[in-house]
Amino acid sequence: MLKEWKLSAAVPEAADFARELGVTRSLANILWNRGICTREKAEIFLQPDRQPFYDPFLLKDMDLAVSRIITAIDNEEKIVVYGDYDVDGMTATTLLVHNLSALGAHVDFYIPHREKEGYGFNLPALQRIAGGGTKLLVSVDCGIASVDDVAAMQGKLDIIVTDHHLPGEELPPALAVVNPHRDDCPYPDKNLAGVGVAFKLCQALWQKMHGQNYEQDLEIVALGTVADIVPLIGENRKIVSAGLKRMRHSSFAGMRALVEVADIRDEVLNTGHVGFRLAPRLNAAGRIGSARKGVELLLTKDEAEAESLAMELDMLNSQRQTIEQDLLEKAEAELAGQDVHNMPAIVVAGDKWNPGVIGIVASRLVDKFYKPTIVFSKQENGICKGSCRSIEGLHMYEALTACKEHILQFGGHSQAAGLSVSLEKLEDFKRAFEQVAEAALSPEDYVPKVKVEMELPPEEITFDLVEELAKLEPFGMANPKPLFGVRGIRGTAAQAIGKEGQHLRFQVGPEGHTLTALLWNRSDYVGIVNSEQLDMVYSPAVNEWQGNRSLQCMVDSIAPADGERVFPEREQLVRIYKFLYQIQQQEDYIPYTAEELTVNFCKRGMHISLYTMSLGLRIFQELHLLRMDLQENCYYLPKASGRMDLEASPTYRNGRHC
């Protein structure tokens, strides 16, 4: 998919700023473009431990929450922590249970079953909890949208809501509602994850009860913060920076076991380890099993139990990957024959699709098609549970709010959300959502963007540059890893690597100064890299192997260089069509991807770029001259008659006249 470069501006003040900070001009330029324009801000950013923790009592209702919890501890009342089934919810539950126990509370926890109960409060669960003798319930990472459920339990169960999701028009009538996104909350950092809000509650309790500045357990807070993809600035940056350093040698046996089973060998973990190795294993418990397993893992003090639970989650994660691939294929089959390119948004639904995996499937569809996507699972009770992922330009929570007349329940953020819709309202919702997306998004919004710090040929990167860029860690949302760009390069010696040959390795740079470049999950580009001029976006890195260190490029994306971006006119389209027809005559269908078709076309002595081939295939699809079987990942030509009316293709019409 073609990504549009967003090249950062060269900052005139960078030279003076670099001298003031004692860093290179490149780093000063990056800091300035990220809004860090003073020495004080830069020093705190580059040394996150200097970031102060704000007073937890600045959070609205924190005083009420702390007072009620202390009363419960003093009176030996049973407290239940009500969590959520994602990593943020599991870590928030772990953190609060762990600390309430340390403070002398009689505490238990409850996490709803994703498939049977769904997200947030549900009245039967609250009634069972109250019926079991619980006097006080404290939510973490949920509850802000549960107005009716909280109202129904008034006089039967005291409820404190702590959450970080966006509030609706009405707050739940709880004893306390601790959420930095409340309109009347003066707390200065609005970016906390659910576990971050739970951490502030723990800080407030230790401060009030023992006069202590609580900064323990940051590895647990960091795990949930990274997994929930909240901005890694302010307090979150301090939390994650400190927490990552504690993970390998954590005081939590479950954390150590999780690191071990994920086969992470680095002494100090990074956000990539958390996001791609630790979090998926914990999430697997909530997706296809019980999220209680994740909390039990993190809370246990028994080494053997921790090892056993970590291995169980590892196996669940493997099952999750299999289910995910199956559902992705089914979702793509639902889209087969539709003009996905010209859809304002993607809404797909299937019978009894695993509700715990549809969010990942939605993310994969966004990666492939770059459109706001909602994947629904149709349940036996006539309810469709959906998971949403958005693109830049469409605030998902606001979009769902605009469609709320068709929705039973929803909640979430700007880029991700969840909802429930009755089956009879599903088509009405789909039309309404597509209309909202179409009104909100311009054609330019459907082109993915990549921020490029500066143009830098790979042969100019140095070990010193890599080490200096590491000062910007931890990387994540609002502080991405710096990316550099180079235009018009040629790759050589491209080959597929990895256990299943899914990754791509090639060489870049002039002879005598070549570097290895790695691109994950795109081995289908082997022939393209070997034959086309490319624009490449990458991050510089150091590869260490058997005591040797070498520089390499971790590729974010590659795209055809300007000279390869040739729009196919009629003559070229005729040649492509004849080429496809010849293949179908031989094979009965066209068992190749666009990448393979490009390489095969070039082997016949006529150069064509992947860009040109892909446009040609799209034009034929829009004219119904070509069909794609998404399940088989191949094409076929239906029977055609007459001359091609190319102007009937939006792609041809728009491309030719722009």
Explain what this protein looks like in three dimensions.
The protein has about 650 residues and is α/β, with parallel strands linked by helices. Helix content is about 40%, strand content about 20%. The protein is built from 23 helices and 21 strands. It has a seven-stranded mixed sheet with strand order 13-14-18-19-17-16-15. A five-stranded parallel sheet has the order 3-2-4-5-6. It has a five-stranded mixed sheet with strand order 7-8-9-11-10, sandwiched between helices. Strand 18 and strand 19 form a beta hairpin. Helix 9 (about 220-225) packs across helix 12 (about 270-290) and helix 13 packs antiparallel against helix 14 (about 305-335). The mean pLDDT is about 95.
Write the layout of secondary structure elements.
Layout: E1 4-7, H1 14-21, H2 25-33, H3 39-46, H4 62-74, E2 78-82, H5 87-102, E3 106-110, H6 123-131, E4 136-139, H7 147-152, E5 158-162, E6 176-178, H8 194-210, H9 218-227, H10 235-246, H11 253-261, H12 271-288, H13 292-299, H14 303-335, E7 346-351, H15 358-369, E8 373-378, E9 383-389, H16 396-402, E10 409-412, E11 416-422, H17 426-440, E12 449-452, E13 454-455, H18 463-469, E14 484-490, E15 492-497, E16 503-508, E17 515-519, H19 526-531, E18 533-545, E19 548-560, H20 570-587, H21 594-603, H22 610-622, E20 627-629, E21 634-636, H23 650-657
Parallel strand pairs: 1-12, 2-3, 2-4, 4-5, 5-6, 7-8, 13-14, 17-19
Antiparallel strand pairs: 8-9, 9-11, 10-11, 14-18, 15-16, 16-17, 18-19, 20-21
Helix pairs in contact: 1-2, 4-8, 5-8, 5-9, 5-13, 8-9, 9-10, 9-12, 11-14, 12-14, 13-14, 14-15, 20-22, 21-22
